[in-house]
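Re: [ENG-882] Designed sequences occasionally contain unexpected residues at chain ends

Forwarding the minimal case from QA. Structure tokens:
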């Protein structure tokens, strides 16, 4: 027989719960809540770490967008055939679309100095001294220190080691518009099977490389006629020698000098060769310009223009 307890108000009291059952219910709620809490925390930290990893990948492995940059200036006056290297010497060289011209004017055979630095470079090794010239006809100042020069043996394709000794003159400083600079760069040629050489000149970070080819020790200048000898008639040219010489020919025309393009380019190279050999402008005027039909009143202008473009 069951007994019902009545509350003071006369209503039945709530039945009593078993103490062990109540304890299990409480423990279950606590454990369930902990599991739920741990799940939420795991999800939170997983999302947080996932987002952090994504940011690191973006910032650390992908270059940030820096806005549109100017395209690299590409040579606008290439040699006769596209992608054909220009020859060593005082010819037109490579002229970029912004007006910068680069040349390898000479490649002289020499040796590594007694005190020198470079990869696999040894004192007394055979070497080549390259004379690099930059002519800044752009509208901006050029950072000459950005000049990069590489060389390899044309026969084998082997990369040559650059030599750093007292005989070289590294590119440094700046070139304002209208200025030019010449630099001496040396490479170790030990082990080369022949004298053929390929040279890559890159004027700066925003420029494509310009390609040159030639032989070590081969004269970068044309043969110099003696002043006492009559000037030989200019040989016939194919027209390809004027490639890249547009600015030079334009300056001649602006000075009122009218001459066949091939003759003008060939004569400029002869003048540079003669001057490099020690002849004076008076001698070269008598040997080349006056016999070629250049008026006496145009001699100074012709020489000045040649110096600016081929010197």
């Amino acid at each position: 027989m069951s007994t019902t307890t009545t509350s003071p108000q006369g209503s039945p009291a709530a039945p009593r719960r078993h103490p062990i059952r109540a304890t299990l219910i409480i423990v279950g709620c606590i454990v369930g809540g902990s599991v739920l809490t741990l799940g939420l925390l795991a999800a939170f930290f997983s999302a947080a770490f996932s987002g952090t990893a994504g940011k690191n990948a973006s910032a650390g492995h992908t270059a940030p967008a820096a806005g549109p940059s100017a395209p690299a200036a590409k040579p606008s006056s290439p040699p006769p055939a596209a992608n054909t290297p220009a020859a060593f010497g005082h010819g037109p060289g490579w002229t970029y679309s912004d007006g910068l011209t680069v040349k390898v004017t000479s490649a002289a055979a020499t040796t590594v100095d007694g005190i020198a630095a470079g990869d696999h470079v040894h004192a007394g090794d055979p070497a080549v001294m390259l004379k690099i010239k930059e002519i800044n006809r752009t509208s901006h100042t050029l950072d000459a220190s950005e000049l990069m020069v590489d060389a390899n043996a044309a026969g084998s394709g082997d990369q040559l080691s650059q030599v750093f000794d007292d005989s070289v003159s590294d590119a440094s400083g700046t070139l304002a518009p209208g200025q030019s600079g010449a630099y001496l760069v040396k490479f170790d040629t030990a082990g080369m099977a022949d004298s053929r050489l390929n040279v890559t000149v890159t004027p700066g970070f925003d420029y494509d490389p310009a390609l040159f080819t030639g032989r070590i020790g081969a004269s970068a200048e044309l043969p110099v006629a003696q002043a006492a000898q009559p000037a030989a008639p200019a040989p016939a040219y194919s027209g390809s020698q004027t490639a890249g010489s547009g600015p030079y020919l334009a300056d001649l025309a602006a000075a009122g000098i009218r001459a066949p393009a091939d003759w003008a380019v060939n004569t400029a190279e002869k003048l540079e060769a003669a001057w490099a050999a020690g002849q004076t402008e008076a001698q070269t005027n008598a040997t080349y310009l006056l016999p070629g039909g250049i008026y006496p009143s145009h001699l100074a202008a012709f020489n000045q223009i040649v110096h600016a473009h081929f010197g």
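QA comment: On inspection the terminal residues look reasonable. The helical segments are 19-61, 246-254, 261-276, 281-289, 299-310. Proposing we downgrade this to a documentation issue.
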